[in-house]
């Protein structure tokens, strides 16, 4: 599929797919305990997926709605084989459209902060910046050595 043909939709929980997708990108998701938390979260959080023509999940985004005016991108993971094809873009656009339709005023995402030299997460931050997310604050929420960057996008 090409980027223009990927469709993201709200879906049922897909914890097995989350586990499988996390395993395709260990440089982003290489901590076993964190991955177990993501798989557990996939049982209960709002789930958006992109599936290929055969119904195989190629990307998952988990969403939290803390308040009626805020929507948090809790996790986005895309199958390595589909990186750069528009899967992440399709999910983000669909979630943003749904948020706007439901009077959400802020989108939020937390990611590894720029004070950490990880190149993969630099690309992650760039992806969100391309869609209008702004860095808000870097904290030690995740502990020493793992700076957490809050990014927000006004809708």
Please give the largest β-sheet.
7 strands, mixed
Work out the strand percent: 25-35%
Percentage of residues in helical conformation: 25-40%
What is the rounded distance between the termini? Answer: 29 Å
Structural class: alpha+beta
Number of helices in the DSSP assignment? 4
What overall form do the CA principal axes indicate? globular
State the low-pLDDT regions, or none.
none
Rg (C-alpha, Å): 15 Å
Strand/helix succession: EHHEEEHEHEE
Could you name the key traits of this structure?
single chain; 155 residues; alpha+beta; 7-stranded mixed β-sheet; 4 helices; 30% helix; 32% strand
Compile the SSE list and pairings:
Blueprint: E1 8-11, H1 15-24, H2 32-41, E2 46-51, E3 57-67, E4 70-78, H3 87-101, E5 106-112, H4 119-130, E6 134-139, E7 148-154
Parallel strand pairs: 4-5
Antiparallel strand pairs: 1-2, 2-3, 3-4, 5-7, 6-7
Helix pairs in contact: 1-2
Description of the structure:
- It is a single chain.
- This protein has 155 residues and is of the alpha+beta class.
- 30% of the residues lie in helices and 32% in strands.
- It has 4 helices and 7 strands.
- The chain has a 7-stranded mixed sheet.
- A hairpin with a 2-residue loop joins strand 3 (57-67) and strand 4 (70-78).
- Helix 1 (15-24) packs antiparallel against helix 2 (32-41).
- It is globular.
- The mean pLDDT is 94.
